From TrEMBL, chains A, B:
Record's keyword terms, sorted: Kinase, Transferase
SUPFAM superfamilies assigned to the protein according to its UniProt record, in alphabetical order: Actin-like ATPase domain, Winged helix' DNA-binding domain
UniProt organism field: Kribbella kalugense
Matching Pfam families: HTH_IclR, ROK
Keyword Kinase among UniProt keywords: yes
Protein name, entry field: Putative NBD/HSP70 family sugar kinase
GO molecular function, one term: kinase activity
PANTHER family: BIFUNCTIONAL UDP-N-ACETYLGLUCOSAMINE 2-EPIMERASE_N-ACETYLMANNOSAMINE KINASE, ROK (REPRESSOR, ORF, KINASE) FAMILY
Length: 381, 381
C-alpha cells in the first residue's frame, strides 16, 4: 500500500500546500518552518519543499533571525509582496484611474485623468494610454516589470477581454481592451466588469474581508451589482451576472431620476457627475425637505432591486460603494428600513471604505489572480 | 525532499481519490483497477488502496471477469448502489410522498397519501408517519436498514432541521421535523426546503445534469425557486436563499391570481389544487381565448421574478418544475418571449421530466449527501 500520489494528484496537492503556506504568510508575522508546518498541518518535509519552491520564485523572503535566540536560530520567512508589480486600470465614464501596486495591493502610484463622458473610443483609449504611462513613470516602474494587469470597464465583458456591450460609454461596445492594453504592458492582461471588480476589492482589502456571500452595490449615476458567492466572484454562464438593474421592475433604471428632478428644479447644478449629485445629499443632510424626499424616493427604488438580490441570495453582507457611497450617512438608515420591509432577513449593511479607487483595486486583485494561477503550473511536477 | 503528505493533507487527498473512483464507477460499465487508474489519473497503488477501502464499506462490488479473457482475467468493480437504502420524504400542502431507494436513487417503493391542505400540525405529522411506515413495508425494508433520511418541506428551514417559517401550511412554523422523523428511522435525518431539493434532484437525475448554474422554478399554486451555483445547491447565510417570490415587484405573489380569476368566472371548478388549475391550461391548449389570456397574464408575472433571477445569476439553464410543469407546453414559449424581453441573455429553458416525485427525489439526494460526507471520515487515516 502506498501513500504516494502521482500525476494530477500531485499538482493538486502541491497547489493546496503552496496556497496554505502563502495564506499563513500573508499576515504580518514572519514564521519559521516549524511554525509553518504546525499552522498548515503539512509535514516538515512538505513545508520545506514548498518554501524552497516559493523562495525560488521570489514569493517568499528570508527574514533576519529573531534576536536573543539560544543556539543556532531558525530561519524565518515572510510573504515577499515586493517581489513583483501589478497594474490595475479603471476606465469609467468621467475618469481613468491607474494603480501600480506590489503583490499585496499596496499602492506605489495612483494616477487619475479626467475624461469627457461624451468622449469616443479613440479619445478614451488615448486617455487610458496616458494614464497608464504616467502611473508607471510615477511608480518608477518599467512596463516590462509589471507581472500582470487587470482592467475594469463598465459594460459586459467576454472571456477574451473584449467589451461585448456598453450602454453608458460612447463607441465602447466591441472594443478589444485586452489587446489594446497589451500594446502598453507586455505581461498577461485580464478585463472585467467594474461592479464585479469593486466587489472583489471589498473581499480583498475592504469591508467584506470576512464574508463568504456578499452583494456589492455600485450606487452612483448608474446602479450596478457584483456578487461574491461562497467566497468567490460569481460570473455566470456568459459572465453576465449581476445585471438585475436592466429589469425595470427592479427600480434601478428610475432611481437616480428622483435626484435629477430635485437638482433640476432646485439648484440647476450640473447633474451629470456624481459630484454634482452630491448637492442633493448635502441639502438632505442639512434638513432640506425636498432633498430629503428625493433621497428617500431614490432609496425606495434602489431597495427594490437590492431586496430582489437579498431574497435571491441571502447574503451575509450588503456593501454600498460607488460615487454616492460618500453620502451613505443619509442613505443607510432609509435603505435598511426599506430592506426590512421587503426582505425575510435584512443582512448587515456596510459602506465601502474606499474613496473611488475600489474598482481599480479590484482590477489589481484580478491581475494577482492571474499570477496566483501560475503557482501550480510553475512548481516542479 | 518527500512527497508524502501527512495529517490534514492526507484525508483531503484520500477524499479526492475516493470521490474520483466513485465518480468513474457511477456509470454503467464495471471497470478494472487498470482502467480506474487510467481514468482517475491516480497511481495504481492509490487506486488499489481506495478500492479496498470502498469495497470494505460496501460501496463497491466485484463483478465476474469479462468472458473470453486470455490468461488470468482482471477483477472488475462496479458501484454497489444496492449496498444501502435511503429514504426521501416530501411533505406538501396536499400530499405526503415517501420514496425508498438504493444509493443511486433507484426507487424501490413510492408511497403517496393525500392530506387536507387545512390539516394542522399533528394531523400532517400523523399522515407522514403512516406514509413512511407504508413505504418501508412496501419496500420490504426495516427502519434500521435506512442509512440516511432526507425530508422536504415548504417554508424556511434552519440547520438543525426545524421549520423556521411556513406561510402555506397551518401550524407548521416551529415544528422540529428532524426530531420527529428520528423517532421513526434511527439513521441521520436532514431537512431542507422543497424548492432547493427539487433543484438538487434536477442536477442529479433530471434535466439539469450537465449544468453548473441552474435556476429551478417551482411553478404551481405557490411559486418558488432553487438555485444551483457552481455545481452546488446555494443555501445562503441563513439558508434563506431563493425567496425572491416574497417581493411583490417580482410578480409571483400575484401570478396565480390570473388563473384563479378565470377558473372562478368560467368553470367554477376547484381552484385549490394544481389539478383543478389544470383546466385552465387544458382550455388554453384547446384555444379558449380567455384561458389563453389568463395563461399569458400568469406567465407575464412569472417572468418578472424569473428575469430578476436570470439577470442576477446568468444561469446556463432555467428548469420549470412543480404542479404546472405538466402544462409546460403552453407555458414555455410565452415564458421565453417574456425573458427575451427583459433579459440580456435568455438561457435555455427545460421542463422537469419528473411527475411530482422531484422534491422527494431531491430529499433522497440530500440523504445521500449525508452518507457521502462519511466517506472521508470513515476511511482509515
Amino acid at each position: 500500500m502506498s501513500e504516494e500520489p502521482v500525476g494530477g494528484d500531485l499538482s493538486r496537492l502541491r497547489q493546496l500546500n503552496a496556497s496554505a503556506v502563502l495564506r499563513e504568510l500573508r499576515g504580518d508575522q514572519p514564521l519559521t518552518l516549524t511554525e509553518l508546518s504546525k499552522r498548515t498541518g503539512l509535514s516538515r518535509a512538505s513545508t520545506e519543499d514548498v518554501a524552497r519552491d516559493l523562495l525560488g520564485r521570489g514569493w517568499l523572503a528570508e527574514v533576519a533571525p529573531a534576536l536573543g535566540s539560544v543556539g543556532r536560530p531558525a530561519r524565518r520567512y515572510r510573504f515577499n509582496a515586493g517581489a513583483g508589480r501589478l497594474l490595475g486600470v479603471d476606465i469609467g465614464g468621467h475618469k481613468v484611474l491607474a494603480l501600480v501596486t506590489d503583490l499585496d495591493g499596496e499602492v506605489l502610484n495612483q494616477t487619475r485623468i479626467a475624461v469627457d463622458p461624451e468622449a469616443g473610443r479613440r479619445e478614451r483609449l488615448a486617455v487610458m494610454d496616458r494614464c497608464v504611462t504616467k502611473a508607471l513613470t510615477g511608480a518608477g516602474v518599467e512596463a516590462g516589470q509589471i507581472w500582470s494587469t487587470g482592467v475594469a470597464t463598465t459594460g459586459l465583458v467576454d472571456g477574451s477581454g473584449k467589451v461585448m456591450l456598453s450602454d453608458s460609454l460612447p463607441e465602447w461596445s466591441g472594443v478589444d481592451l485586452a489587446a489594446h492594453v497589451r500594446r502598453l504592458v507586455p505581461g498577461p492582461v485580464r478585463v472585467e466588469n467594474d461592479c464585479k471588480l469593486a466587489a472583489l476589492a471589498e473581499t480583498w482589502h475592504g469591508v467584506a474581508r470576512y464574508a463568504k456571500d456578499v452583494v456589492f452595490l455600485l450606487a452612483g449615476l448608474r446602479t450596478g451589482a457584483g456578487l461574491i458567492i461562497d467566497g468567490k466572484l460569481h460570473r455566470g454562464f456568459a459572465n453576465w451576472s449581476g445585471e438585475i438593474g436592466a429589469l425595470p421592475a427592479a427600480g434601478w433604471l428610475r432611481a437616480p431620476e428622483h435626484l435629477t428632478a430635485w437638482l433640476e428644479t432646485t439648484t440647476r447644478r450640473d447633474a451629470s457627475t456624481s459630484v454634482g449629485f452630491e448637492s442633493v445629499f448635502i441639502a438632505a443632510r442639512a434638513g432640506d425637505q425636498g432633498a430629503l424626499q428625493a433621497v428617500r424616493d431614490y432609496v425606495r427604488d434602489l431597495a427594490v432591486g437590492t431586496s430582489a438580490l437579498v431574497l435571491t441570495l441571502d447574503p451575509q453582507l450588503v456593501v454600498i460603494g460607488g460615487g454616492f457611497s460618500r453620502s451613505a450617512d443619509v442613505m443607510v438608515e432609509p435603505l435598511r428600513r426599506e430592506l426590512d420591509r421587503w426582505c425575510l432577513r435584512t443582512p448587515e449593511i456596510r459602506v465601502s471604505a474606499f474613496a473611488d479607487e475600489g474598482v481599480a483595486l479590484g482590477a489589481v486583485r484580478l491581475a494577482l489572480e492571474e499570477v496566483e494561477s501560475t503557482i501550480t503550473t510553475g512548481l516542479r511536477p
